[in-house]
Amino acid sequence: MTTTSSTALKFAYWVPNVSGGLVISNIEQRTDWSYDYNVRLAQTAEKNGFDYALTQIRFTAGYGAENQHESVSFSHALLAKTTHLKVIAAVLPGPWKPALAAKQLATISHLTQGRIAINVVSGWFKGEFDAIGEEWPEHDQRYARSEEFIRSIKGIWATDQFSFQGKYYQFSDYTLKPKPAEPSTIEVFQGGSSKAARDMASRVSDWYFTNGNTVDEIKKQIDDIRHKAKLNGHQVKIGVNAFIIARDTEVEAQAVLKDIIHYANTEAVDAFADASKEAGASTKEKEGNWANSTFEDFVQYNDGFKTNLIGTPQQIAQRIIALKKVGVDLILSGFLHFIEEVEYFGQHVLPLIRELEKNEQ
Ligand SMILES: Cc1cc2nc3c(=O)[nH]c(=O)nc-3n(C[C@H](O)[C@H](O)[C@H](O)COP(=O)(O)O)c2cc1C
């Protein structure tokens, strides 16, 4: 399936490169973190109209996720087995330095016809940073570092003899060769919803990824970012997370949600909720991912139930169009049984969305 126009909504899915699926629940999940499963998933996704796949970076277990494959190498391996899917590799400033990331991604872009992108994440999991001996700047300083990281990699990719004098990174007449492959500029995504995240998006990122939320709450974030971006002469696109449960009837879909929560791994959810206090909740504004999340919200670790894409294909398609109308450009999706549900989404939900989009024009 091809998208209908350049304004058509884009679709991404979370790569399950960590174990345990996308919900912190002991419910049966026919999702697997192995490479073989992920190759089949990526091939299914590109056949079913998905534009992007997003890998996760985790150095230690958190929210369950006992095993975690590394994001950049895993992204490259998926690109090698697909033909047009773009894969967004999560990268964490701190463990990654901008010179290494810029070089690594430029090479991967040559090896994969420019299909690699990057998600710069700023870190919420202090226990993980402590475990690997990485410094843990406070919340807004982590974003200050991420912003320098993004300015550095973009500068390295765009210019010869790149120089930069930041607090965290310095470059002096650095020329990267080869630059990323044509026709690509490597797209830079970022994840997080705090004021610091929104400010960074309004200055440097190509894409802003946020946790799941209601249409009204998403609209508030978008209005804030786009207003500031305009003042900065910058353009940024918006991606929203959603855990999608599409079933033939609403009753079936709601029953799945109920079961996921009923079988929640309470201990892991509570530990995750506790660790998440280092995110937006730790700032003076007390805004950001998980700042207002309930136990049920935490069961999908990026607040994916809040977006409410749970119901019949028709209901989901209409709710996705409502998100588009407030300025959303991309839906980032998670599923319980990934391969089979990505296929169902491509066959039953996406065609309805494309129809509704045609009526919009
Ligand atoms: C779509 C998305 C993907 C993310 N992926 C990762 C990841 O792979 N690894 C990670 O440590 N944090 C990840 N994060 C977390 C963010 O980088 C950030 O630490 C968190 O959302 C808190 O940000 P805030 O305080 O600005 O709201 C992701 C966030 C979002 C929205």
TrEMBL record:
Residues 27-329 form the Luciferase-like domain. InterPro entries: DMSO2_SphG, Luciferase-like_dom, Luciferase-like_sf, SsuD_RutA_monooxygenase. GO terms for biological process: alkanesulfonate catabolic process. One of its GO terms (molecular function) is alkanesulfonate monooxygenase activity. It comes from the Bacteria. Keywords: Flavoprotein, FMN, Monooxygenase, Oxidoreductase. CDD domains: Alkanesulfonate_monoxygenase. It holds the Pfam family Bac_luciferase. PANTHER family: ALKANESULFONATE MONOOXYGENASE (PTHR42847), ALKANESULFONATE MONOOXYGENASE-RELATED (PTHR42847:SF4). This is Dimethylsulfone monooxygenase.
